[in-house]
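Lecture 7, part B: from sequences to assemblies.

Below are the input chains for today's worked example.
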Amino acid sequence: MIKLTPKLSQKLSYLILFLATVLVIMPIIVMIFIIVKNGISVINWEFLSSMPRNGMREGGILPAIVGTFAIVMCTTMLTLPTGVCAAIYLNEYARDNTLTRLIKLGIVNLAGVPSVVYGLFGFGIFVMFLKLGVSIIAGALTLSIMELPVIITTSRNALNSVPYSFREASWALGVSRWQTIRCIVLPNALSGIMTGAVLSIARISGETAPILFTAAAFYVPHLPHSIFDQVMTLPYHLYIISTQIPNMPSNVIFGTALVLLFMVLTMSFVAIFIRIYFRKHRKW
Amino acid sequence: MSKIEIKNFNLYYTNFHALKDININIEDRRITTIIGPSGCGKSTLLRSINRINDITEGVRTSGEINIYGENIYDNRTNVDTLRRNVGMVFQRPNPFPISIYENVAFGLRVNRISSNKNVINEIIEKSLKAVLLWDSIKDKLRKSALSLTLEEQQRLCIARVIAVAPHIILLDEPCSSLDPVAIRKIEELMIQLKDRYTIIIVTHNMQQAARVSNDTAFMLFGELIEFDRTEKIFTNPSKKETEDYVSGRFG
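Predicted structure of the full complex, as structure tokens:
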């Protein structure tokens, strides 16, 4: 048995911690590397701006980009106002009773429901029962239900981080509770709310299961005309071209993955920049 | 008629009886201090006078607090108007994280007291002059309020209250986070403001009560033990508990 000196055990534990970190980071780096290496060759303006041709083996992925964009915009317009309002209610007004505790518990647990369950739920309610059909709006509503708990939770945390003394100071000047929220609490919570919103946009643009039965189409020969149209989306398109189409050129598959990855990562970086910017300018 | 008349006032935090049958008459344009050991209910009593306690969960009250003859616990009372008339300054200076100018203008704008820029500027100058801050900061009104020293911040908080033109100013241990020199200056300010406002101060500091106030109330375990002229409380109190406390035997 080798006796470890403090110095040696120190070095050894550093090494183990460092290796664990590398082990965690490695797959992500390798994945990005492989996707970029195999996919970069097909990325050009035509790939991004034209319709698919020859059974999707050639041409571009414009309808999938537009479809993803449309669904994400629609979802954000639905979730952000409602989510922030719900967060304001829960954080600023709701009294701590059994009902609000139940609601808060529900919100936390909703975040743990598998996404395919949301997809089937959305299919049942929006597509079948409300007869919206497989459409952008049905997909956006489904994604909204899935994303609302996340938006509410991050917004509540942002509101909660505004010091109570700001609210007290405002009330003591005869400013009503709503005016205090509007003029003091919200401006100071904005950065947190925005960061959460952008991160959830990034997340929903990559979701597949919830839109599988509610919005996504195998192939649509034209761009969507209204929110009641079916659309192609990037994640679903990626799934189809990787599994359903024989003789699919692999660089197109990787290229599509690269576009999706780029979109998601860009939004995550935007969120990081918002956070850094506001943290630097925040004085409390 | 006295300005603030507290009659058989009780307050409960859920099941805790925090204020027990308080009766007190506070007169116009005087400084009244409320003293007593921690947890005796002095801050709670102060926070009842502008009903900022309402927001705390589980608070129930009974009895009356009359300001100029009107019971502020009446259902018809507009709480926001009440709070504008009864300003409050807190233990820790709590300026908003915006400019000095905007801090003072905030109450004016949001309460729609005035939207005229000249009027606002005038009120801001007057309020900052009243707290003796104008001369030192008139050239940096656009700077963040958080760049000021703690003492200046507390003065700014007082100016922010004065700007919305209250009749009564409540101060909840306004000096507890300040150093002795700053405390002296804030005390001088309070004495100056007495001519225009009715001031009620909660303090831990008995010397401070003796230095600045005209009247002193002594509280213990949620009860008002004694209320009298400050000289009387500190030199010849009528209750044993008061004497023990002011002579430093406990608390």
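Note for the exam: Chain A touches chain B through 22 residues (CB under 8 Å). Keep this in mind when comparing with the next example.
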